[in-house]
Amino acid sequence: MPSELPMNDPRNIWQNQPTEVFKMSVNEIRGKAQRRRRKARREALLQITIGIVVCAFFAWIFARAHDETLPRVGLGILSLCGLNFAYQAYRWIWPGRPGPDAAVSSSVEFYRSELERSRDYGLHIWRRAGLTFCFLGLALVILPGVIHSLNSPRLLLNFVPVLVLLAIWLAIFFPTRKRRLRRLQEEIDELRGFEQHGRS
Amino acid sequence: MASDYLDLRAEAITTGDVSQDSLYQDAADTYGASLDRLARAYELDPDARRDLLQDIHLHLWRSFGNFDRRCSVRTWVYRVAHNVATGHVIRQRRVRSRLVSIESVDTMPGNDRGELVASQNEALDRVSMLIQRLKPLDRQIIVFYLEGMDASSIGEITGLSPANIAMKVHRIKNVLRRWFGEGEPHAE
């Protein structure tokens, strides 16, 4: 009887804790797997659609703008960024690609590979999201406006809040990212050590 | 032994005598309670725990389609379950950043919870609280230890060397002794 267990024996307490019976049948599990797949596909489709809409929107403005070259180049780049976003959503989120094999890998191997995935995602998010080109495109679009406003410093003041916010974001983003990646790398190295020790 | 029977059934799956569904059903019947406890080790919130348990069963059912008998059914079940649960912890980035190793818990000053617990629920809460603080790998080892598994089985599932497991289990015993007075006579 659980109530008669000695309180200083955590193994007994753990093994005799009340458990619930898992009630899903195999058919229900199969149905759930299909529903999950459909949901993942819907989410991927939504992101792809957003990318295409962004691409079409900037392409439309690009086609209508005839005055200056620099903003047009910026709009073209932003349009391509939208297309890249849609492509990356298809590449990374679209269901169907096999995930990491949860059964074949040992726990250490699986945990390390998951941490490495997390690290790589953090390392390449800038490139994967095409953020460099997005910022370049935005800069090209607003740069002529900034240059024009140099003649009247009052107009230039309008850009100050945006620049301040951008500076704050950059000052927080990079150190936080660096610290997180360093911690991840330390843990990955520790797990690699365990793996090597396990093999030898 | 239920696990031996399951291994025989697994052998039959390769010859087509046993289906993926029935092998999963047998595994779920044999290890159901253990998987429920495992989910408790990774998630305290009852609703989130139910979702995690469903996830584990879903992956388990799916994985039996690729079961290649490179290991026993028990090892397979625990690997899938713990790896799914580890993925669950990794996705909770904020929670993960606060997790510590068993070595840290063992050496933490002012952490002694040697006072005896009054009820089984309190004791269980205390075990759960300890487990929830640990990094996934240490969490697995303490769960296996609490489940009463031997070092070689833990090694097969986790991929850690016997020496590493012995060291971790030693730490776990130390911590449990401090938190529960394990091994000491229970005072009424």
Explain this structure to me?
The complex is a heterodimer of chains A (200) and B (188). With 200 residues, chain A is mainly α. Chain A has two domains: 23-97; 102-200. Helix content of chain A is 78%, strand content 0%. Chain A has seven helices and no strands. In chain A, α3 packs antiparallel against α5 (131-149) and α4 (107-128) runs antiparallel to α7 (160-199). Chain A is elongated, with a radius of gyration of 26 Å. By secondary structure, chain B is mostly helical. Chain B folds into two domains: 2-95, RNA polymerase sigma factor, region 2, helix turn helix motif (Rna Polymerase Sigma Factor, Chain: A), CATH 1.10.1740; 99-180, Arc Repressor Mutant, subunit A (Orthogonal Bundle). Chain B is built from ten helices and no strands. In chain B, α2 (20-42) packs antiparallel against α3. Chain B is globular and about 55 Å long. The chains are: A mainly alpha (200), B mainly alpha (188).
Q: Could you outline the blueprint of secondary structure elements for this entry?
A:
The complex is a heterodimer of chains A (200) and B (188).
Chain A: H1 10-15, H2 26-64, H3 69-93, H4 107-128, H5 131-149, H6 153-157, H7 160-199
Chain B: H1 2-15, H2 20-42, H3 46-63, H4 73-91, H5 93-96, H6 102-107, H7 120-132, H8 136-146, H9 151-158, H10 162-180
Helix pairs in contact in B: 1-2, 2-3, 2-4, 3-4, 4-9, 8-10
